[in-house]
Design a protein that fits this description.
single chain, globular, proline metabolism, Proline_DH_dom, 12% strand, TIM Barrel, Proline_oxidase, alpha/beta
Length: 509
């Protein structure tokens, strides 16, 4: 692509791109130019998830330099007792594009760049609201809005809190799944529970009549200027002394964390007012605990009586089923609508390589078949609750290009008597891929979406080049789609309809 641009010049290069890769996988340059694509999709019963796909074209050296710099506190990254190495930056994997083809990647430069990314997301909300007639969704990546160090440290806090709970109560899993009460906690701590600092900790625990929901008052991270260094402390069961679960953070970094939360909160607030739904994308496992925690707090705040925020779950991870069950319970106990996008995942090769190099347990499923089984198990668990005894306000997007998975989801809908227009299940595929799945779903009355990237030609080249690279391997697997395309080309030539353009008159669910 770079060589072609040098040879033919920018103007001709853009024309060639629009007739090939760009035209296939990207809807247009701005919210006005993408309108024909969005309206054409709508005419065949298909809605849109807009994604402003602009990326910086950084070298590997520059990406690594930025990531390492933005992942370490100015206070240093010294070894501490209980530290989890998975949640610390590793030079060899600092370029997060390594072995990742389909997911967009943001590298932190400064707070001004995060503000610029927020403005781009806000413009996308305007585009969704103006074009999709309140049926559209928008994708957001949290790493675009803040310093990665803060997501790493918050993720480590969450996982260390789980280890602490395991130490106190035995078993595995996070705080919520232990079903312990504050009284249980007081018994575990014995005479230490009477200490003023321990009693102060107990008062801040989030709990209900069924027991402890969270060790920390997570709602405070959205509601006020929460001091991270002071907040994430737990009483030592042996000494009763309060110990920190988070490595040291400077006052400036505390401010950066509040800025990140302010940005995502503002985006969702604007989206809620514009009747646009936000899908927060999944990212690497070392960021994901923090991303999911923030996402669930946003759901608790905004998903009251309707869906505004959706989380993303990657089923190539072994623990995804347990995470989903826990989050479903939290949604029920804290009374908010729970929305999820279920995907196989984009980071499996990178995660395996990183786990092997750094010496921690591989978080991914051992095979493609195990990932599919995980996807189906998660889907069945969610849909089984829709009409069950503990009926909840649930919404799920089945984001898959796998025909068998789509058929499985439709069969589950029939088994559980979930109608396509009940706003429970929707389906999603990427623009330019697997149209033979998306369009029949939309035309059959199911809620079907295309993930629609857009942006200026030159600025989406990093995304496009990875998409082209991904398809080089992907095309080997889609014999059916290639066969259907060739069959249609042959039909058009034989019937003299070489430039035939179908017209739809469907109305999306």
């Amino acid at each position: 692509m770079k060589r072609l641009r040098q040879v033919v010049g920018q103007r001709l290069f853009e024309m060639i791109m629009k007739a090939t890769f760009y035209g296939q996988f990207v809807a247009g340059e701005d919210q006005n130019k993408i309108r024909p694509t969005i309206e054409r999709l709508r005419s065949f019963g298909v809605k849109s998830i807009l994604d402003y796909s602009v990326e910086e074209d950084l070298s590997q050296e520059e990406a690594e330099k930025r990531e390492v710099s933005a992942s370490i506190s100015v206070c240093g990254d010294t070894e501490e007792e209980g530290q989890l190495k998975q949640y610390h930056v590793e030079q060899r994997f600092a370029d997060r594009r390594y072995k990742v083809t389909s997911a967009r990647t943001y590298f932190y430069l400064n707070e001004a760049s995060c503000e610029k990314n927020m403005e781009a997301f806000l413009k996308s909300i305007d585009a969704v609201a103006g074009i999709t007639e309140s049926t559209g969704l928008m994708a957001v990546k949290l790493t675009a809005l803040g310093r990665p160090q803060l997501l790493l440290q918050l993720s480590e806090v969450i996982m260390r809190a789980r280890n602490y709970m395991q130490q106190i109560a035995g078993g595995t899993g996070n705080v919520l799944t232990h079903h312990k009460t504050i009284e249980d906690f007081q018994r575990y701590l014995g005479e230490h529970s009477s200490k003023p600092e321990v009693q102060d900790f107990m008062k801040k625990i989030t709990s209900d009549k069924e027991g402890i929901v969270h060790l920390f008052p997570w709602s405070n991270i959205l509601d006020k200027d929460m001091n991270l260094s002071d907040s994430f402390r737990v009483p030592d069961p042996k000494s009763g002394q309060m110990r920190r679960l988070i490595s040291q953070i400077s006052p400036k970094e505390e401010e950066m964390f509040r800025n990140m939360l302010r940005r995502i909160n503002h985006i969702i607030q604007v989206a809620a007012e514009a009747d646009v739904r936000i899908m927060i994308d999944a990212e690497q496992t070392y960021f994901q605990p923090a991303i999911s925690r923030i996402c669930l707090e946003m759901m608790r705040r905004y998903n009251k009586g309707r869906f505004v925020v959706f989380n993303t779950y990657q089923t190539y991870l072994k623990n995804t089923y347990n995470e989903i069950v826990t989050d479903l319970e939290q949604a029920e106990r804290q009374n908010f609508f729970w929305g999820a996008k279920l995907v196989r995942g984009a980071y499996i090769e990178q995660e395996r390589a990183r786990a092997a190099a750094m010496g921690y347990e591989d978080p991914s499923c051992e095979s493609v078949e195990a990932t599919t089984a995980s996807f189906h198990k998660c889907l069945k668990e969610i849909l089984g609750r829709v009409k069950g005894e503990r009926q909840q306000n649930l919404g799920i997007m089945v984001a898959s290009h796998n025909e068998d998975t789509i058929r499985y989801a439709i069969q589950l809908m029939r088994d559980y008597n979930i109608q396509p227009d009940e706003k429970v299940v929707c389906f999603g595929q990427l623009l330019g891929m697997c149209d033979h799945i998306t369009f029949p779903l939309g035309q059959a009355g199911y809620s079907a979406y295309k993930y629609v990237p857009y942006g200026p030609v030159l600025e989406v080249l990093p995304y496009l080049s990875r998409r082209a690279n991904e398809n080089r391997g992907f095309l080997v697997k889609i014999k059916k789609e290639k066969g259907l395309l060739l069959k249609e080309i042959f039909r058009r030539i034989v019937t003299g309809k070489a430039f035939y353009k179908p017209v739809g008159n469907y109305t999306p669910v």
